[in-house]
Amino acid sequence: MAIMVCGGAGYIGAHTVFELIGRGEEVVIVDNLQTGHRGALNPAAKFYEGDIRNADILEKIFSENKIEAVIHFAANSLVGESVQNPLKYFNNNVGGMQILLEAMTKFGVDKIVFSSTAAVYGEPEKIPIVETDKTLPTNPYGESKLIMERMIRWVKNLRFVSLRYFNAAGAIESGSIGEDHKCETHLIPLILQVPLGKRDHITIFGADYPTHDGTCLRDYIHVVDLADAHILALNYLRNGGDSEIFNLGNGRGFSVKEIISAAEKVTGQKIKTEIGERRAGDPAKLIASSDKAKKILHWTPRFSEVEKIIATAWNWHKNNPDGYKE
Ligand code: UFG
Question: pTM for the full model?
Answer without folding.
Answer: 0.97
